[in-house]
């Protein structure tokens, strides 16, 4: 909003009111403008979030036991040889589920809700604390 005002009406930032105060594009001003001028209110789509299993502690303990037995039986003694890899999605263009719509609207359409621009980052570290180089995987 500040960029828009600076481009379209920069004199608003230079002018002073009758009591000497200058215009400030505060959060309160923006919220009031969006509601009063556009009749927009924040809206969000709903979706169930990923949940932690009830037996998460038990699963972690069992994973620790399996890993301990594997390392013992395989004779792996050097921590540099124990490596944990994981991957995570890195979103370049977020497909937000929030938008503004006229208050009272029953349907809130969001263009590109199912689309996302992202790549996968594979990260790894050894038990000795050495971080391995990150591998980035792009589509195609």
TrEMBL record:
Instruction: State what protein this is by name.
Output: DDE-1 domain-containing protein
